[in-house]
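pls ignore typos typing on phone
zinc ion + seq
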Amino acid sequence: MKVIEPGDGEILDIELEEDFLRRNRELAAENRRLLDKYGIHAIDIMGSIGSGKTSLVVQMATRLKQKYKIAAITGDVTTTIDAERVKAAGASVIEINTGKECHLDANLVRKAISELDLREIDLLFIENVGNLICPVDFPLGSHQRIAVVAVTEGPYTVVKHPFIFGEADIAVINKIDLCQAMLVEPEVLKEQLLRIKPNLMVAKTNCMTGEGLETVVGSLGL
Ligand code: MG
Ligand code: ZN
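k done
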């Protein structure tokens, strides 16, 4: 089958893009320095719309709020639905509405961080906008990255998006309770993930019930 791929320099805004990406990396490094200065461990969560990123943050916050002072930055195109849910789980929350932007960048995260009382935080979750493509190129300054894939996305998300899972430290296969209805075998997704990145930590979860959350929390070293 004929497949068309852009060659070097064939994407029209490539030089502009290089500049943006370099600036983002600089700002991400600044974010990291600021977080480190205050002893804050930051984790960002990436994945498709509806994969369960917010439910995962809620589950992690619920489990860890006795041990750590938790804040969250939730990125959404428009609503504050996710922010309200995470707040109800006991975290202080800053919402970023990106408008038409399909990912968080280090500058937006820097703005959000400046709204937080950093002395009062040990652990920061950053929920990205639901997207499997751009977050790869936009590090935010976090210490660890989680990529979530739900079995309800069907069998091909992992093989189609190797970069995002290769970028992650931990992959979460979510909604495992629905795997039979979806005819998706979580173990097959896990094998695909490990083919992309052999040292990737993989957890299988049901973020509605909390099943598998010990593995996630353990993998994060928290
Ligand atoms: Mg969400
Ligand atoms: Zn984007």
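The first strand starts at residue 41 and ends at 47. The chain has a mean pLDDT of 94. more later
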